[in-house]
Predict the structure of DNA-binding NarL/FixJ family response regulator.
Amino acid sequence: MIRIIILDDHPLVRQGIRAIVASSPLLHVLGEASTSREAHLLLEQSMPDLVLVDLNLGSESGLDMIQEARRAGHTCKFLILTSSITRSELLLAQSQQIEGICLKEAFPEDLLYAIEVVARGRKYYDPDLMSSLMENNTADRDHSISELTPKELEVLLALGKGRSNKEIANTLFITEFTVKKHVSQVLAKLELADRTQAALYALSKGLVQFELQR
C-alpha cells in the first residue's frame, strides 16, 4: 500500500485527485493540505510514502515546500502536479532531484501510472510537457546529430533515458571518465548547456521512448 498526501490550494482539485487515487486498491490517501504549513504538519504526523504537490500554491511554491521538507529530514518521494512549468522551474526541479512531474491535464490512468513509477523509485517527467519545452530550442540543431560519433549517439540516447554516468558506463562497457568525455562532446556538438537539456533534446526528437517513466 502506497500512502499519499495531497497538497493543493484548490479544494475541487484536491477532491478530483483524491477520487482518482482512491480508484486504485494500491493507494491510500492519508490526508490533504492546502498550504505548505498544513503539509509539513501532515508529514510529521503521518510519514507518507509520497506527496502529490501542486507547483503553484497561491503565493507559495511547491518547489520551496519540497526543499523545506527535505531539509527537515523527510525521505518520502514527491510528485509535482501542474498545468504548466517554466524551463527554469523544470531545471530547478531536476537539480533538486524531485522524483516526478505530471500535468494536471493528464488522464487519470496516467496519474496513477506516474504515482506507481515514482513509488518504485524511478523518475516520471511528463513526456508531453518536456517535448513542448524543447520544441522551440531544437529546430536548428537537427543537423548536429550527424556530427556525433556512434558512441556519442549511444551516450545521448542513454541521457534521454535518464541514465547516470555509472549506468551508462556499465551499459556501454566503458569507464565513467570516458562517459564524461562523451557527454562533454555531445553537449558541445549539439550546443546544449547540460545533460538535462541533452535528455530533453533526445526525448523531444523521439530518439528514445520515455523510459524515465518505466
The radius of gyration is 18 Å.
